[in-house]
């Protein structure tokens, strides 16, 4: 059992799903977000309100930490200036303070939007070149590169989870991109308990028949998804009907983030229903 895990973004959807599992893996779980409080704390769990863009606040979380699960961010497209603090500077603050505190590894919630402009018909692997679809996706590219640099220059491991769609299946795209709640937990558990990882990238996706990505390069992590979105296919496909190849959202891995204008939030979040 680990002595201490720090979880950022604890009030978000993924963070809320992960908290019980993380609490069971460590003696002390320290959670943070920008809300005033969160409910249902485990006996070994504490909550600290902290802004990712505030280095001192983030560094104060890290004393004695072994693993950091960095899930905090603005999770929509928006003006670069709005994403700069939480999504770019926030990642630097996490990596810099974690390595200074002696953390062994950071598990980071990256996203398919780091490679979102690759054609959907291309079955991309974890070594696919960065092709962000938005400033939001660009922040994921930055944090992946940051993690690689800190591994190569300072020896702190990181596992970057390119999550596709961590939400209920509501459209045809999600038949391939769905990451179930239970598989999210399995994914993070393997990212934490694998003995050594160095710098690694793995797609966060369930065992979907229609998965558009290849996780074979990350097999050493031992992630074995159990759920499959095909159970929803008949109902979803009957409701949606034929697709439209002229719609960029249906033709790139980033889905609705593909056609969204740079810096314009809201539209992407309303359309995506995913990560």
UniProtKB/TrEMBL annotation:
Location of the region described as Disordered in the Swiss-Prot/TrEMBL record: 244-275
GO MF, one example: oxidoreductase activity
Domain NAD-dependent epimerase/dehydratase: 5-163
Keyword tags: NAD, Oxidoreductase
Domain of life: Bacteria
Family matches, as InterPro entries: Epimerase_deHydtase (IPR001509), NAD(P)-bd_dom_sf (IPR036291)
Family: Belongs to the NAD(P)-dependent epimerase/dehydratase family.
Name of the protein in question: NAD(P)-dependent oxidoreductase
Native organism: Gymnodinialimonas phycosphaerae
Species lineage: Bacteria, Pseudomonadati, Pseudomonadota, Alphaproteobacteria, Rhodobacterales
